Amino acid sequence: MNTPTNLKYSEDHEWIRVEGDEAYVGITDFAQSQLGDIVFVDVTSVGETLAAHEVFGTIEAVKTVSDAFLPVGGEVLEFNDALEADPALVNTDPYGEGWMVKIRMTDPAELDALLSAEGYEALVNA
After folding, report:
1. Does residue 126 fall inside a structural domain?
2. pLDDT digits (tens, 9 = 90+) for 44-95
């Protein structure tokens, strides 16, 4: 399992990469491996401000549909349009080209409640 150390992680299996007051969010390598082949990512929350742990979209795999949650509160600024044409990017590059949304955080202090890479690995290996 790939768990980059420059990211923060939620117990819901999302990651967040902070760039100033904005951040990119996606699902972890572990999450995509549990879901299987992803065939559709649906995000209808662009322009909305959501609280931490609120659903920002859904991920449809061959056998299941799963909600995707924001690890911290913020305004959803952008959906990764590349996922419309190739949702499998979440499987092949979950931390890079497979990011899902870009947000403007409402309270960067919420990052302190998230897991480090080491903490996340301990969670999924428990």
Report:
1. no
2. 999 999 999 999 999 999 989 999 999 999 999 999 999 999 999 999 999 9
What CATH number is given to the structural domain containing 59? 2.40.50.100
| Two tokens, residue 56 | 């920002």
For residues 52 and 103, give the distance between their C-alpha atoms in angstroms, rounded to a whole number: 12
Q: Evaluate whether residue 1 is within a structural domain.
A: no
CB of 41 closer than 8 Å to CB of 90: yes
Instruction: Kindly report, residue by residue over 2-33, the tens digit of the pLDDT.
Output: 899 999 999 999 999 999 989 999 999 999 99
Domain count, the chain: 1
pTM (2 d.p.): 0.96
Residue-range definition of the domain harbouring residue 105: 9-110
Supply the DSSP string of 4-57, one letter for each residue.
-TTSEE-TTSEEEEEETTEEEEEE-HHHHHHH-SEEEEE---TT-EE-TT-EEE
